[in-house]
Amino acid sequence: MKPLNKKGAAPLTNKDIEFLKFLDRGSYQGTSTLQLPERDKLRKIIDVFDILFYLIDACFRHFKKRRANAGRVAIKNLTNALTGKFPDVSIDFSKVRVLEGLLAPPCGAMHHTAGSSILNFSWAACTQCNSNCSDELMAIIYCPERRQFWCEQNLGIRRSDKFCTIEVPDEFEGTEVYVWLAYRSSDQRINSCSSYMGKALITKGDDHESV
Prior knowledge:
The chain is of the alpha+beta class and 211 residues long. The chain has two domains: 10-95; 108-210, Immunoglobulin-like, CATH 2.60.40. Helix 2 (36-62) crosses helix 3. 25% of the residues lie in helices and 27% in strands. The longest helix is centred in the first third of the chain and has 27 residues, at 36-62. It is globular and about 55 Å long.
């Protein structure tokens, strides 16, 4: 924690100011000090970044990618997924890409029945040249509240199946989760970019359907 000056403000270093300019896409015109409320908001922003870096790093570690790749993708995600301007900056998870690859990505819809841990996915046939009927579906789930990450590479679902049902693990009950799908080739040599499918509040007790 940086020491406060006599006016109760924390002095900013040149790196701090550059960071704030990054948050404001280069337009930050603030002072070289931050009062307590602004410092608290900046701390929350850094926490948000920690969540994003954790998600990308965990995903790439899971798929045994080089950490350098994870870092590069994470930086790209920061640029694409940031929304708002300082001090009201947050992550738009719909713009987060947790995997990059050459295969055609999933393109479909997610359906969640409130009060259930079941997620249903459906998609149309893909006719792109970089897709194969034998491509295998993978699911990625992340809970920012608990910083828990779950990935299943062996769902037993192929691109040609056009439908999939996934039961969210019990440890996510009572939390909001974000969901991505991706494909890998049947020989497991290449994968697609991930596709954000949506978010769902995993609870029990209701029975109406939402999308």
